[in-house]
Amino acid sequence: LQPQGSEEAEASVHAVLKRSMPQMKGEAIQDMLTRKALVLEHYPKKKAKQKRKKVKGFTAKQRRELRLFEIEPEQQRYAIFLPLHELWKQYIRDLCHGLKPDAQPHMIQSKLLKADLHGAIVTVTKSKCPSYVGITGIILQEFKHVFKIITKEDKLKVVPKLNSVFSLETDGFISYIYGSKFLLRASERSAKKFKLKGTIDL
């Protein structure tokens, strides 16, 4: 049984082939329809590639103007950042695989040199500027040249790294940070190789 309309369909196909291939005879066309399959190719339109626009960040000047890194006065309270210090201590314990009494001091020192210090409690033990000596508090921000420290008196201190020595105590381990050898951003320290030995001057 042939479906209705098959004769009309066959006639239309013959007509299309005769128009597109006038040099072929009717027998040749019939042979093509009997023995070969017709492939109707479809070429999809190429979509134009949209160029991705690079998102430009703020410049250093724009960040300063927008005061992105400024800590509001009402937020400058030591108690607010004590939970941050507790998180930092756990972070250091995990980083050093547990601060056990038999841990090697040089191993802990090498880990601390590359660690993130936001949340650490530090004390300025030496400085060429006597007014900085004795400042103790939680590091809130670290920049290339300075630490911003919040003290127990809820005062935000900006202490230069240059010509300063900071002590840092963690579970009984005391480490010293020589700021003059530490003039890097926090993100740059993780990739830097530090020498544990050498001459150290203020």
UniProtKB/TrEMBL annotation:
Transmembrane segments: none annotated. InterPro entries: RNase_P/MRP_Rpp29-subunit, RNase_P/MRP_Rpp29_sf, Rof/RNase_P-like, Rpp29/RNP1. It is found in: Nucleus, Nucleolus. The keyword RNA-binding does not apply. Keywords: Nucleus, Phosphoprotein, tRNA processing. Pfam families: RNase_P-MRP_p29 (PF01868). One of its GO terms (biological process) is tRNA 5'-leader removal. Its main location: nucleus. GO terms for molecular function: ribonuclease P RNA binding. SUPFAM superfamilies: Rof/RNase P subunit-like (SSF101744). One of its GO terms (cellular component) is ribonuclease P complex. Belongs to the eukaryotic/archaeal RNase P protein component 1 family. PANTHER family: RIBONUCLEASE P PROTEIN SUBUNIT P29, RIBONUCLEASE P SUBUNIT P29. Component of nuclear RNase P and RNase MRP ribonucleoproteins. RNase P consists of a catalytic RNA moiety and 10 different protein chains; POP1, POP4, POP5, POP7, RPP14, RPP21, RPP25, RPP30, RPP38 and RPP40. Within the RNase P complex, POP1, POP7 and RPP25 form the 'finger' subcomplex, POP5, RPP14, RPP40 and homodimeric RPP30 form the 'palm' subcomplex, and RPP21, POP4 and RPP38 form the 'wrist' subcomplex. All subunits of the RNase P complex interact with the catalytic RNA. Several subunits of RNase P are also part of the RNase MRP complex. Component of ribonuclease P, a ribonucleoprotein complex that generates mature tRNA molecules by cleaving their 5'-ends. This is Ribonuclease P protein subunit p29. It comes from Pachyramphus minor.
